[in-house]
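Morning F.,

Quick status update on the modeling queue. The single chain you submitted on Monday has been processed. Sequence for confirmation:
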Amino acid sequence: MSAKIIDGKQIGQEIRGKLKSRIEALALKGVVPGLAVILVGEDPASVSYVTAKEKACLELGMHSVQSHLPADCSEERLLAEVQRFNNDPAIHGILVQLPLPKHIAEQKVIETIVPHKDVDGFTPINVGKMVIGDRCFLPCTPHGVIQLLKHTGVVTKGAHAVIVGRSNIVGKPLANLFVRKDINSTVSICHTGTRDMAAITRQADILVACAGVPELIKADMVKPGACVIDVGVNRVDAPDSKKGWRLVGDVDFAEVSEVADSITPVPGGVGPLTITMLLYNTVEAAEWAAK
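Structure tokens below.
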């Protein structure tokens, strides 16, 4: 069996197309959704990701501001930059690109962002609202995973969803989204303390890999006919490549695509949805501000 490839680029474009009409409606009120992205340092992956976000904003007619600080900038300087955007009425969403240099307290920076501009959904207030099911900004990657499932027609009601990974950015919030009544899945979370992980992953109707371990999930860990969502993005050595490296996910794509019913590729799967849901949250923030 060869799995259906879930095209994140196409689904992302569909969602962005719907966002355009909302942006046009805001324009009639004199409001342009504004996103400020703060980047600290020169990490190539972060620079590339921030550039992609800026391009996506401009394509939709949104206001995009990028603040690029040196890697050795002080924590106080970064916090001051966050406060500057907190107080800027033209900015509706603030994103601080993670990870940050070790000398900066990441959580302190996140908590400095005012909740109504926290379009990453990382502040304690938005996390708390997500857990109790209140209206809030949902974390972009977990929300993107849910959108992929909805647009692909994957049945989530009553399904057993197994998440491999427990990060605050993906694993934990995704588990919370899966148990919401509109999704209604039963959830298991696997991590480094899990005994016989394969025995659990083989129970999954929906298997989400977000552990950050290259090609961790093999074919014998997957239930035949399962939907496999690969969140991982890992750079591995590839001497035969011009770059000397290639990107792989947390799933052994070649093996697992012969067992699964559907699967996301890396790149081109979850990644485009992460950026799309960031734009989605920024538009929502502008709509809330315009009321």
